[in-house]
Amino acid sequence: MTAHITQRELRNDSGEVLRAVENGATFVVTRNGSEVARLSPVRRRPFVTREELKRAAADLPPVDGAELRADLDAVVDQETLLGE
Fold first, then answer.
1. Element (H or E) spanning 5, and its range?
2. Which residues lie closer than 8 Å to 4 by C-beta, 6 or more apart?
3. In principle, which of 31, 47, 65, 68 could form an S-S bond with 7, CB 3.0–4.6 Å?
4. What does the alpha-carbon distance between residue 75 and residue 73 come to, in Å, rounded to a whole number?
5. CATH of residue 11
């Protein structure tokens, strides 16, 4: 459930409100009875170690640099990129 708080409540109790958000709460902030903002937790991205990344990439096919450049050249106008 989303709690509604006024702008004044947010200003006066910002520390308490932000602690609640850190713990998963979501608030809709109102001003003069109108909804103006939503405060919700930021999704944390999981940290991936270098070793985990290497294991995940181990089964990927190798990249052929010349083939990659040819593919890019086929779709990108180099003169536009260089501003000429």
1. strand 3-6
2. 27, 28, 29, 30, 35
3. 31
4. 5
5. 3.40.1620
